[in-house]
Model the fold of this input.
Amino acid sequence: MTDLGGELMRMLPFLVAAWLFVVGLYGIVTSRHLVHLIMCLVVVQTSTYLLLLGVGYKVGGAAPIFADIPVGTPAVDPVTHALMLTDIVVEATVMALLLALAIQAEERAGSVDPDQLRIMRG
Amino acid sequence: MNTFLPATPVAVPLTVAAVLAAVNQHIARRLADALAIAASLWCLSACLMLMFRSNHGLIVYWMGGWQPRNGAAIGISFAIDPIGAGAAAFASFLVLVAFVFSAHYFDSVGTLFHVLLLAFLAAMCGFSLTGDIFNLFVFFELMSAAAFALCGYKTEESGPIQGALNFAITNTIGAFLALSGVGLLYGRTGALNMAQIGKSLGQTHDGLVVAAFVMITCGFLVKAAVVPFHFWLADAHAVAPTPVCVLFSGIMVELGLYAVARVYWTIFHGALAQFEAQTRAIFVTVGVITAVIGAFMCFAQRHIKRLLAYSTISHTGLMLIAFAMLAHGALAGLALYVIGHGLLKGALFLAAGMLLHHLGSIDELKLRGKGREAIAASGLMLFLALGLSGVPPYGTFLGEALIDSSAEKLHYSWISYIFMLAGIITAAAVLRVVGRVYFGWGEDLDRSQQEEGETDEGRETSGGEEIPATMFVPTLVLLLMGLSVTFIPGLRNETQTAAMRFMDQGAYQQQVLQHAAPPQYQPPAEESLLVPIIRGLVATFLALIMAGLVLLPHPLRKGINGFSGGISYILRPIRIVHSGHMGDYVAWLTAGVAVIGGLFAYFIH
Done:
């Protein structure tokens, strides 16, 4: 019983990550508003956070700050945290840029509906 | 200085970009130009130096001196080989050209364009030189963010905004895919250094490894714009400022493919070694579809920059085929093809930019017969078009010859016909533009009602009676380099050796992790170029005929009307698929990943 439960708990972050990725994509495909679409992109991004944290997690591990715990104590992997932080910083730039473009779309094309923003085709 | 040389292609442009951003409007435009040109010249010479030095073995540079201990890499490294350094050098060169070309191009005040282009350059250099997969992702995103902003640079118009949005959203999803793959690999191996990941994966090829491979590959293939991930490319190129298009088509798209090759040979080569035939078949299929769809879509365009963009898609398909051979001959050919294509396509975009500058339009039908005023642009275009068909002595020709001979040994000799087909159609499309714009041949179709999207764009410059030397000279230089690159002595041998070095996973690991001495390679004997020469001449001849047929005077044209009607009938559904709707683009992207992933899962289990 503990095995099944433990296995499920171990898999949970990855299952949720996969779900977030797919549901975010669904939101992007069906979106009718650029800001909503960009938020769906953030949902997809959240999936990568969860994946990285899940990868670095260790059951019973302490926070990896070795100032006040003895060396050798089991700790979660700090590298994945660094990766996630970098990911957040990089993507914050991209999202800011996207939102700025959305504002410009409203001003220049008079719409934020992807259905109306289709002068490029064929 | 020598110790830090490998870091400078990233550090120098970023520093100059920061300085220019800080002083923004308080600096004279010419001084900003000079600083930016100096920074890109520095990158160019540093990368060339690195390229020649790494000819004798990998140059491994550990950031902050964090060397690996007991064969385990903790720090972040640049692992520089001739192909990576060559890609960075080529990127620096194209950025230099873009800066010179744009000296009289934008009338804007401020240094934002310089800042973005320099950040773009730093990212491309880092991307080509790095030996760490997370670092690869970060540079990928920096490159993307700068590229999105450059694409939407003309914010006062609606087109660039839409193009930049399509570009940004699809490419960001690609980046998330790649990052998820990186996360899976880290979970499996606990390493981020590519040599280390490859070493600890060894021969294992379970579901997780295959999933990571598919995610990383598809993520980078979004940037490489292969079908069905290609939709963003035509939109982005049609609206981006011309000097930026040179970089998008000339090197950025190719870097997507470079990353796939780099990751394949440093990480997955051992794991997927026994599935080489299947991997080859899958990528060749995708490449052929891309090459053919790109070529036909190219021929169907009237917006000249969009036409060139589809031609790039077609040529990326060819490049993917070359990679798919997974052989050193084809990889060497690919490297030469990228250079040859980048020079020609860059010059073609610049020539289109001259048309736009001089005549205020980029619509082939609207410009009919007006090209006589812009003879320089039209004349250059004529010579550049021939290069697309792979006629000697253009750089594309030599690359194609190497790829063909390598494919023949793998029983894929039929791909040479795909190369010819794509070359003929894309060259014919550009020749048609020259015929119509310069000579005024063909029907006057401007008023015919065609269901089409944007066919033209506004001026990027204040326009002028004359084409300044800063526009004409860079274009001519690119053309001349495209023509003469074939004559560099020993080029084929050096590139073949570089390709062997690039593909040697064991030697790469030992050099990065254990400071092992590099092995030396013996390039194979040079083969005769007679058959490729004949093939190139035939392709060019057919391209001229194809362009001529379309431009025949009205009564003579009757005979082929049925034929061209048939073609546009077939093309209709394909053109409708290119809907300009970003939701559709993302749906295609998802479907593409699912199909490619499904194929790999099917073959490897």
About this structure: The CA atoms of residues 9 and 42 of chain B lie 7 Å apart. Strands of chain B lie at 59-62, 77-80. The mean pLDDT of chain B is 90.
